[in-house]
Amino acid sequence: MAKNFSKSTTHYWLTVIFLVSFTLCVWLNNVQLTTPQLSIGKLVQAQALDAEQLVNKGVESYKREDFRAAIQSWEAALEVYKQNKNYNNAAIVNENLARTYQQLGENEQALNYWEKVNTYYGSQKDWQKVGRIFTEIAQAYSSLGQTRKAISFLCSVSDEKNIENLACQQGSALQIAAEQQDKEGEIAALGSLGEAYRLRGNYDVAIQYLEAANKINNETYNFAILNSLGNAHKSRAQLWDLRAKSAQQQNPSKATEFQEKAKNDHQQALEYFQSSLKEARQQNNKSSEMRSLLNLIQLFYHSRTINLIDKAQVDINIQEALELFDKLPDSVNKIYAAIDLANLPAFDDELTSPLTQCLTNPRLPDAQAKQLFNKSIKISQRLQDSRSESYALGALGHFYECREKKYQPAWELTNQAIWLADQKLKAKDSLYLWEWQAGRILEADNKNIEALPFYQRAYNTLEQLRSDILIADRDFQFDFRDIIEPVYRQLAQLQLELASSNNNNNKQLTNPALTAALTTINSLRLAEIQNYFGNDCILTAINNPKVTEVVETNTAFISSIVLKDKTGLILILPNQEKHLQWIDQNQETLRKEIENFYTGLIRGKRDINYNTKNAENLYELIIRPFEKYLNDNKIKTLVFIQDSFLRNVPMAALYDKKDQKYLIEKYAIATTPSLQLTSTEKINIQSSRALVLAVSQEAKIDNRLFNALVNVPSEAQAVQQQFANSKKLENQDFTISNLEKEIQNAAYSIIHVATHAQFGTIPEDTFLVTGNNDKLTINQLETLLRETSNGSNFVELLALTACQTAVGDDRSTLGLAGVALQAGVKSAMASLWSVADESTANLVTEFYSKLRESGISKAQALQLAQLKLINAKETQRDIQHNHPYYWAPFIIIGNWL
User: Fold this and answer.
1) Measured by CB atoms within 10 angstroms of the end CB, which terminus of the chain is less buried, N or C?
2) Where are the transmembrane segments (predicted)?
């Protein structure tokens, strides 16, 4: 059974509620409801005289969007039909009830009714109706975030990349519509497919299906198609903007190309929304007109950087919407329109999520906004619609929280919203918003102790929803930092501050607040990885004892959490002692210091005498406060679980001015994105087989030139010599098809990749350079390796020795850290930047040589390889290799044992 979670709805509340809630169910619910014969999307008046008045009364309530009243009438009519054994009319009423529950966002209940309807029409062999019901069921699953299941009902297509002929499998909604020559059913299925693929973030496929629907001339659906096409192009434009940002540093020409594509998609969205507005006005459909106006207003805020829509025109659209609002009959959608309009930011405000962030410069005056909020509450209460009432109350509470700073009424309204979402609706998608809001209000009112339980409740609710909301809808990936991440960070900050207040003398910290903070921080790491990889992310927590309780006694962990005004560092010792330290620098100051350190390592590579000043500063901030505990516990290995831009720090190169040593000279070092996902099983790889993938030739990918890696052949040969029965795919032989064949035909526990690897802000811009000027994306690599890991053979180590991450872009390093986890590989050895020098071959050779020695962990093997470069003295050329540029970028990720 589907989960009790309307994923799609949550995102809409956080941006523009009303306009997008229309798109999912529009395909079968946008037509008139008074037609006496059964037709797609039409709530049909029953023929039984005893129940006819009840059915018609429900139809009139539905048309007014008084959905609770409609349900009450139809449930009474349904009992009459059941008693009279009038199964046909009972099926019709069940359809009506299913659609109405979908309108209310109660998709589980809707699915229960659809199952009954589908069983009945299947028994009657009414295949046209069965096909149409499949489409409606698919819409419900899309609303629940289960887009794969929705697509299976609509098309059952097995390959999303090969849909040119829009061919669907037998028994799917689209195939049935084509076989029955049911044009309305075909449009509905195509439109619903478009929406499902849009939610999955596959905008190219979504647009193909929507354009196919648009080619079928049907006036009834013109408005719906135009709106969906506008939303798909707007979402794709947002993706192009993100890709442009990702490519800006490493491939400026590609960034310009992406920006142009974003501009084109924004223009397409504008044209579709303008056409939908014209269509609504021609049909004199006020509700649709409001949807189109709000679509245009939202598009303005999304495209301000390219001046797509003139501010004067947007101002006209806002005034038109405000005037139209009073002409609309009371309905659920009118409630959400009021909340949207009241929350509009000023034209130049950078706010992205008005319902979770505070408006610094609102578009409407406070008095007008408050009036809209109060109207929305009154309408929701009159309609007895608990969901919309919860949002209206919460929105007004947010108004008092931010714009009037009146915390008592803000708290009271938010508490009412919580009660409605929790007790009456069990709607966790909205519940976490109001729990989080309650925590913020109490904290702003200097009631931190009282605030903590509400942050904890919001966190607990979010944890139950996390997989759905982070992998099901690409739009959530765009807004993650506004609507998901702050819950974790604000909770962790309160927990750590509580831990600090309980231990002002900085003695051993064992209190529950610090342990709880570590759990919160670890959950944030999982959420970030899932957010990065999106709808293809499959992560499974290791079902072992706590990692910190099963490793060697000489290993310690340092976990970090970056907050706005300071950064928390938590040391976990083998005996489970925990120590907390703060870096009392604001986020931007610390970020700048780390960027200076990072760029100094790269740019200073030709300096014989490396300036260690930046490395010394970071050592003092991160390591020195814990030095006594590390020495007292005879720690030999440090494992870092880093946050945000701290992931970019090559920790090995931190410098202890007092001892005149780099950190790697004192400890073996590893990093892991999440302890919860880290396997601690130690594998003997002495008899392992290695697959070596190498490209030494110059390559051109996406108009970007990747220089030849002249030292790669010697590196590849050195790896091959370390392991018997190994295989090498080099240059033209390294293709995706050859790699796939090799992995399927033989078991390799080590895969060593010596080629350019780019890690960008998003997975689409993360790839390995293969032979013949081609590329292997991170998702393709994940698919290949996961297929191997799901069988009896497991890849123990993935080595990527020519990676390039973007300076200052912590999301690119997140991709580097997450690739092994996503692919099901236990460990990775990778580089933060590419070192085109023979030193890499020397380091790799030493690493594998030491790794094959009994009792040596991966972290220790890398430490010894790095120390060999640091201590090289044979020739003047070798002396250069002791510069950290040559050895510092190499890191162990995941299982360091």
Assistant:
1) N
2) 12-29
- What's residue 34's pLDDT? 27
Directed axis angle between helix 252-282 and helix 286-302, to 10°? 160
Q: How confident is the model at residue 22 (pLDDT cuts 50, 70, 90)?
A: very low
Q: What is the DSSP string of 535-583?
A: GG-------SS-GGGTS-TTEEEEEEEE-SS-EEEEEE-TT--EEEEEE
pLDDT band at 789 (very low <50, low <70, confident <90, very high): low
Segment holding 317, helix H or strand E: helix 311-325
Name, in order, each residue with C-beta under 8 angstroms of 88's C-beta and a sequence gap of 6 or more: none
Phi and psi torsions of 685, nearest 5°: -105, 20
Among the listed residues 283, 418, 389, 302, the one whose alpha carbon sits nearest the alpha carbon of residue 350: 302
Give the whole-angstrom CA distance, residue 315 versus residue 880.
63
Decide: residue 811, CB within 10 A, 0-12 exposed, 13-18 middle, 19+ buried: buried
Distance of CA 325 to the CA centre of its chain: 34
| pLDDT value, residue 1 | 32
Q: Which amino acid type is present at position 308?
A: L
Q: Residue 163 has which token pair?
A: 């849909």
Query: Running DSSP on this structure, what letter comes out for residue 144?
Result: T
Give the number of other CB atoms < 10 A from CB of residue 562.
18
Q: What are phi and psi of 381, to 5 degrees?
A: -70, -40
Reply yes or no on whether the pLDDT at 583 is more than 80: yes
Burial of 449 (0-12, 13-18, 19+ CB in 10 A): exposed
How far is residue 275's CA from residue 233's CA, in Å, rounded to a whole number? Answer: 14
pLDDT attached to residue 40: 38
Q: Could you tell me which residues come within 8 angstroms of residue 273 by beta carbon, excluding any fewer than 6 positions away?
A: 226, 227, 230, 292, 295, 296, 299
CA distance 81 to 87: 7
pTM: 0.87
Which pair of structure tokens corresponds to residue 620?
Answer: 């003092």
> What percentage of the chain carries pLDDT values higher than 90?
60
Residue 603 pLDDT exceeds 70:
yes
